[in-house]
Specification:
The protein is built from 14 helices and twelve strands. By secondary structure, it is α/β, with parallel strands linked by helices. The strands form two sheets. A six-stranded parallel beta sheet has the order 3-2-1-4-5-6, with helices on both faces. Helix 10 links the parallel strand 11 and strand 12. The protein is globular and about 65 Å long.
C-alpha cells in the first residue's frame, strides 16, 4: 500500500507540524511515503518530513498528473473535493483527509467525497459524526508534543516580527517591505523575564483562537494584578495582531510581543502558565500538549477540546467560558493563583496523562490507522 501525504499550505503552522511528525512516525514504522507540497512553501525544505520523495506543485489541479506509484492512499491535510478526487479514484487511488479543524461554522460538504476522514481529537470526530459523515476513522489520532522540530539552535529569545504577511494582498506586500527596514533601525531586544506572575501565549495569532474576544473580557482583570506580565510568542496576520493588541490595551507595556520563536521549548520555560484561546474553533491545540511536556501548566476554558488534552488540576486549571459569566470565574481563578492559595500544577507529575501524547502512543495509533486503510 503506497501512501502519499498532501499538504499544499504555503505557510507554516500546526497542520505542517502534524505532517512532519506523522511522516517521521511512518518512517519509524518502516512505511515509505511521498509528500506533495506547495512550491511556494519553505517548511518542507527546512524540516524533516520523513518523505522518500517530494513533489512540489502550484495547486490541487496538478496532483492527478503526478508520477507517484499507483494504487495509493492519498492522505490530505489541505482538503480538495469534487472532480479531481474522482479522477484520482479512476487512477486507482483512495483518498483520506485529516480533519484539522472542527466543523463549527465551517463548510464540510467536500468531506463527503473522501473514502475516510481522520479526526485529530474526539471533539472533531464527534462533530463529523453529528453531521452525518460516518466514514470517519474509529478513534482520534491526536498528536505529538514535538518540541525538537526545528533544525539547529534557535538562539536566544529575542523580539522578532509579530506579523505573518500574506503577500497576495497589496497592503501586506507593501508592509512586508517596510517593516523589516524599520526593525533594522531598532536595537535588538533580548528576552528577560520580569519578576512576578508570568502568563503567556505560544501560538499563531489566528482568527480561530479568538484572542480579541477573549482579551476583550479578560484584559481588565489581568491589568488589576500589578505584578502580572503577559508574554506573547507568535505571529499572525495584520488584522489579527491589530485586534489582539487593541483588546490588550488595559495591560499597556505589560503585554509584550516577541514574534515567532524557533526554540519553543525555551519560550514555554519562561512562563508560569500558558493561556489558550477560546475553545469551539480549536481542534486540538498542539501548544497545549507542548507546554505540558515542558512542565508548564495551562489555563483554559472548561470545554472540548481542552478537556481532552489537560488533566484537571494536575496539568492545568479550567475556568468557565468568560462569554457566559463575564469573566468572573477567570477572575476568581487568577486571584487564587496570584495569592498563592492555588498551587501551581506540575504536568510532569501526571505521566499517564502525558503518555497519551507521546511519540510511542502516536505510533500505536498510526499502526491502527494503517490497518484501517489496508482493510477499508
Amino acid at each position: 500500500m503506497h501512501l502519499v501525504q498532501v499538504n499544499l499550505q504555503s505557510g507554516f503552522g500546526g497542520g505542517e507540524i502534524y505532517t512532519c511528525f506523522l511522516g517521521r512516525a511512518l518512517r519509524s514504522l518502516g512505511h515509505t511515503f511521498d509528500l506533495i507540497a506547495n512550491t511556494r512553501a519553505r517548511w518542507w525544505q527546512e524540516y524533516d518530513t520523513g518523505a522518500s520523495r517530494i513533489y512540489p506543485v502550484a495547486g490541487h489541479e496538478e496532483v492527478p498528473g503526478l508520477s507517484f506509484a499507483r494504487p495509493a492512499w492519498l492522505l490530505y491535510h489541505t482538503p480538495d473535493g469534487g472532480p479531481r478526487l474522482a479522477t484520482l479514484r479512476a487512477q486507482g487511488c483512495r483518498t483520506a483527509s485529516f480533519v484539522h479543524m472542527p466543523l463549527y461554522q465551517r463548510r464540510y460538504q467536500h468531506f463527503r467525497d473522501y473514502d475516510l476522514l481522520i479526526a485529530v481529537s474526539e471533539y472533531v470526530r464527534t462533530g463529523l459524526l453529528d453531521h452525518g459523515l460516518v466514514k470517519t476513522h474509529g478513534e482520534p489520532l491526536y498528536g505529538v508534543a514535538h518540541l525538537d522540530r526545528n533544525p539547529g539552535d534557535g538562539g536566544p529569545l529575542a523580539a522578532r516580527s509579530r506579523y505573518s504577511w500574506d503577500t497576495r494582498k497589496l497592503r501586506d506586500r507593501v508592509l512586508s517591505w517596510i517593516e523589516p527596514a524599520i526593525e533594522a533601525l531598532r536595537r535588538p531586544q533580548p528576552y528577560t523575564r520580569r519578576p512576578g506572575l508570568t502568563l503567556g501565549i505560544v501560538s499563531r495569532i489566528t482568527p480561530i483562537k479568538q484572542f480579541p474576544t477573549l482579551f476583550g473580557i479578560l484584559a481588565p482583570m489581568l491589568a488589576e494584578h500589578a505584578g502580572l506580565t503577559l508574554e506573547i510568542f507568535g505571529s499572525g496576520g495584520y488584522a489579527s495582531v491589530r485586534d489582539t493588541r487593541r483588546a490588550l490595551a488595559p495591560l499597556g507595556a505589560r503585554a509584550r510581543w516577541w514574534g515567532e520563536q524557533r526554540d519553543v521549548r525555551r519560550a514555554y520555560g519562561t512562563l508560569d502558565y500558558l493561556l489558550t484561546g477560546l475553545p469551539e474553533k480549536e481542534a486540538l491545540g498542539l501548544n497545549v500538549l507542548e507546554a505540558q511536556m515542558c512542565g508548564t501548566p495551562v489555563l483554559a476554558p472548561d470545554a472540548p477540546p481542552f478537556t481532552e488534552t489537560i488533566a484537571r488540576g494536575r496539568s492545568g486549571y479550567f475556568y468557565p467560558d468568560p462569554r457566559q459569566d463575564e469573566g468572573r470565574g477567570f477572575a476568581h481563578l487568577l486571584a487564587g493563583i496570584a495569592a498563592g492559595t492555588l498551587p501551581r500544577p506540575d504536568p510532569l507529575c501526571a505521566p499517564e496523562h502525558l503518555a497519551r501524547f507521546s511519540e510511542g502512543a502516536f505510533r500505536e495509533r498510526v499502526v491502527r490507522l494503517l490497518s484501517a486503510l489496508e482493510h477499508a
